[in-house]
UniProtKB/TrEMBL annotation:
<dbReference type="InterPro" id="IPR002611">
    <property type="entry name" value="IstB_ATP-bd"/>
</dbReference>
<dbReference type="InterPro" id="IPR028350">
    <property type="entry name" value="DNAC/IstB-like"/>
</dbReference>
<keyword id="KW-0547">Nucleotide-binding</keyword>
<dbReference type="InterPro" id="IPR027417">
    <property type="entry name" value="P-loop_NTPase"/>
</dbReference>
<protein>
    <submittedName>
        <fullName>IS21-like element helper ATPase IstB</fullName>
    </submittedName>
</protein>
<keyword id="KW-0067">ATP-binding</keyword>
<comment type="similarity">
    <text>Belongs to the IS21/IS1162 putative ATP-binding protein family.</text>
</comment>
<feature type="domain" description="AAA+ ATPase">
    <location>
        <begin position="96"/>
        <end position="229"/>
    </location>
</feature>
<dbReference type="InterPro" id="IPR003593">
    <property type="entry name" value="AAA+_ATPase"/>
</dbReference>
<dbReference type="InterPro" id="IPR047661">
    <property type="entry name" value="IstB"/>
</dbReference>
<dbReference type="Pfam" id="PF01695">
    <property type="entry name" value="IstB_IS21"/>
</dbReference>
Length: 239
């Protein structure tokens, strides 16, 4: 027994080890045949590794909120389509590299929704990166000064899902426009991007100063995207 436990520890089979201890304590160990015991131990190890991966992916993503699909208020009167959210929860849009555009007034639950979709993606094993758009653009400016922009943009491009919150709160300067276009271009048709904004999608054009850049970015984002426009007053006022 001690040798088995030692080997589990050496191999870092933590899920198996804990379940093995539980089987011993409940005296079920000798009631199971080899196949039954292996199935229980392997399932425990699989669940342990899945949970560890989710925690790591979630921590690295930098979400604004801890949220889940189950916590969402799927109210059709607020423009939240239950069928669409259910479809997005499958993660198929990530596999297809499709964008999701979420708009609505301050406090209506946009960021919570995007965080829930991000957490769901982590549960499915996807790498997610969550940013406030303005802070991301400042970060892009900084890495250019440091000479590490190539690595920075490559990392963004490799995220399975990139969530950009609070898009359009400020206008982009020329360099920021080019940086933003590069981010979108790197991901177009290959990786999924969620854009969250207080502005309706029809007003996003005004965030840019260069018409050609605006056309290029919005053509890649809007075409074929999923659109969610949350209606109603701030949920914060009701709390």
């Amino acid at each position: 027994m001690n040798q088995i436990e030692t080997k589990m520890g050496n191999l870092r089979l933590h899920g198996m080890s804990r379940t093995w201890e539980a089987l011993k304590e409940t005296r079920r160990l000798h009631e199971l045949n080899l196949q039954e015991g292996m199935e229980i131990l392997l399932q425990a190890e699989e669940e342990e590794r899945t949970n560890r991966r989710f925690k790591r992916l979630s921590a690295n993503a930098g979400f604004r909120y801890r949220a889940s699909i189950e916590e969402l208020r799927l109210d059709p009167s607020r423009g939240v389509d239950k069928n669409l959210i259910t479809a997005l929860a499958t993660g198929e849009y990530i596999a297809q590299g499709t964008a999701v555009l979420i708009s609505g007034s301050t406090g209506c639950g946009k960021s919570f929704l995007s965080s829930a979709l991000g957490h769901q993606a982590c549960l499915q094993g996807y790498k997610v990166a969550y940013f406030n758009t303005q802070k991301l653009m400042l970060k892009a400016k900084l890495v250019r000064l440091e000479g590490s922009s190539i690595r920075f943009f490559d990392k963004l491009a490799k995220a399975d899902l990139l969530i950009l919150d609070d898009f359009g709160l400020t206008h982009l300067d020329k360099q920021q426009e080019m940086d933003f276009m590069e981010m979108i271009e790197d991901r177009h048709g290959k990786r999924s991007t969620i854009i969250v904004s207080q502005l309706p999608v029809g007003s996003w054009y005004d965030v840019f100063t260069e018409e050609t850049v605006a056309d290029a970015v919005l053509d890649r984002l809007v075409h074929g995207s999923y659109r969610i426009e949350i209606k109603g007053e701030s949920l914060r006022k009701k709390q």
